[in-house]
């Protein structure tokens, strides 16, 4: 059941040099992740005196920014990640956009940026898709997770070097055709446990989707890559004990008695839309979801005893990806039980079937974009 439709009130300024059909089709055959961009972008301007105005969809291209723009100096920036899926009848849908819109406002409040309404957030996705619908790939099979990844973001563009919330802000949406986030698709990934670096601390910005959190994770990500790991797991800053998240993905632990445990949300963890959806879908699968603190000791002991049978990461970009091992300077934590990641695969299939319109949208999670 689609949610409320939002009329788009965006002025369309179509590109006079759109990508040719053949080139686009070639890109869509093997898009990778985040490498190619569509022909247009949505834009809305905010100023302290005129609020949000100037809604446009215009040709994709470099931004003109004053070198003194506050985003370049103080990182006043937030973003979102959401996907557009092509259904078998050619129509294009997105998944729970009101959750992203709500989180975007939460992030905006924390970064002292102006809040954007559902109407403008969802309207901007629709307006962009009205121009760039041919960039949404068609899945080749039920396990194909190709989509058009949408990246709404907001930056402080006022040219002013004093440290205070900017009086001029710009919101954009760009779009990038995407295949699986990880090179190996749904092959289990190795995760690096960061010993030296923390991603977030109480009272900080961990729950907000802001560039600064991702920038702070990059040194640890570099360590991960040097140790053949594709992501980093972060522990809490206060006790260095509690599992938080992977920086761009949430974590789930499957227990052999059917419990599905994920770290309870605090202000140091980003509330993932996929995380929230997995908690609901898990119940339909007969699992018992639990949101509670889970320690690194419990991971280590549960993996060794066979109590924990699977670990998986989830996020908009990653969908659901099994975690094969946790690696640190001191140890390698591997699961002794399980190994086939059956629960992760089942929930993944359920989620993808819903997103691609192959199963009933019984929670009303889909919104038509085009
Ligand atoms: C997303 O899943 O949308 C993110 O922003 C995470 C990032 C690793 C791409």
From TrEMBL:
It comes from the Bacteria. It comes from Vreelandella arcis. Acts on leucine, isoleucine and valine. It holds the Pfam family Aminotran_4. Residues 1-22 are annotated as: Disordered. Belongs to the class-IV pyridoxal-phosphate-dependent aminotransferase family. Its cofactor is pyridoxal 5'-phosphate. The modification N6-(pyridoxal phosphate)lysine is found at residue 209. Its EC number is 2.6.1.42. This is Branched-chain-amino-acid aminotransferase.
């Amino acid at each position: 059941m689609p949610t409320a439709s939002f009329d788009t009130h965006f002025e369309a300024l179509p590109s006079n040099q759109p990508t040719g059909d053949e080139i686009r089709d070639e890109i869509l055959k093997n898009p990778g992740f985040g490498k190619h961009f569509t022909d247009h972008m949505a834009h809305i301007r905010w100023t302290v005196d005129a609020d949000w105005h100037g809604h446009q969809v215009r040709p994709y291209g470099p931004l003109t920014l004053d070198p003194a723009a506050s985003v370049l100096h103080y990182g006043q920036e937030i973003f979102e990640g959401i996907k557009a899926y092509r259904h078998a009848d050619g129509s294009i849908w997105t998944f729970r956009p009101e959750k992203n819109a709500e989180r975007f406002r939460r992030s905006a409040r924390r970064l002292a940026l102006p809040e954007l309404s559902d109407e403008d957030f969802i309207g901007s996705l629709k307006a962009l898709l009205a121009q760039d619908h041919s960039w949404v790939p068609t899945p080749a099979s039920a396990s194909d997770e190709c989509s058009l990844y949408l990246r709404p973001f907001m930056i402080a563009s006022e040219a002013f070097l004093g440290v205070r919330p900017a009086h001029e802000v710009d919101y954009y949406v760009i779009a990038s055709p995407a295949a699986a986030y990880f090179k190996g698709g749904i092959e289990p990934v190795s995760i690096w446990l960061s010993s030296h670096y923390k991603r977030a601390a109480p009272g900080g910005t961990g729950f907000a989707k802001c560039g600064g959190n991702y920038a702070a994770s990059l040194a640890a990500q570099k360590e991960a890559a040097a140790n053949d790991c594709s992501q980093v797991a972060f522990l809490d800053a206060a006790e260095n004990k509690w599992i938080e998240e992977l920086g761009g993905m949430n974590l789930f632990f499957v227990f052999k008695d059917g419990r599905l445990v994920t770290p309870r949300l605090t202000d140091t963890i980003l509330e993932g839309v996929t995380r929230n959806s997995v908690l609901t879908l898990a119940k339909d699968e007969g699992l018992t979801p639990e949101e509670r603190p889970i320690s690194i000791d419990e991971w280590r002991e549960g993996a060794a005893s066979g109590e924990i049978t699977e670990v998986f990461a989830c996020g908009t970009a990653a969908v659901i990806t099994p975690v094969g091992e946790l690696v640190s300077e001191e140890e390698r934590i591997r699961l002794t039980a399980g190994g086939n990641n059956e629960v992760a695969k089942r929930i993944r299939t359920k989620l993808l079937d819903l997103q691609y319109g192959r199963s009933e949208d019984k929670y009303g999670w889909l919104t038509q974009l085009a």
